[in-house]
Specification:
single chain
Length: about 100
């Protein structure tokens, strides 16, 4: 079943439930700052596992103590869809106490 792009209003409404996430151009984005490089690396591994479970993958960047994500749905022409929000929610569950950087 094809995935439908969300309207700007739908995106803004859903973002209200995901603190720290934002809509940047045509991607949902979020950065997390962790206490160490090891903690950031562990988070990347956990995110990768979630992405495999969902069969939906973000651009994922590991810095010294940061993890940044950028996601949209390629099969919907690079638009933001509900699949992107599902991934964002799952990532948020992994690190609910971490602030955006």
């Amino acid at each position: 079943m094809p995935v439908e792009p969300l309207s700007h209003k739908e995106i803004e409404d859903r973002l209200a439930e995901l603190p720290g996430w934002s809509f940047d151009g045509d991607h949902l984005t979020r950065s997390y700052r962790l206490g160490s490089h090891f903690a950031a690396t562990a988070m990347v591994v956990h995110i990768a596992q979630v992405q495999e479970e969902l069969d939906h993958h973000s651009d994922l960047t590991l810095g010294y103590n940061t993890v940044s994500l950028s996601v949209n749905t390629h099969s919907a022409g690079g638009a933001v869809t509900e699949k992107d929000f599902e991934l964002a929610r799952r990532v948020q569950e992994l690190a609910p106490g971490h602030g955006a950087s």
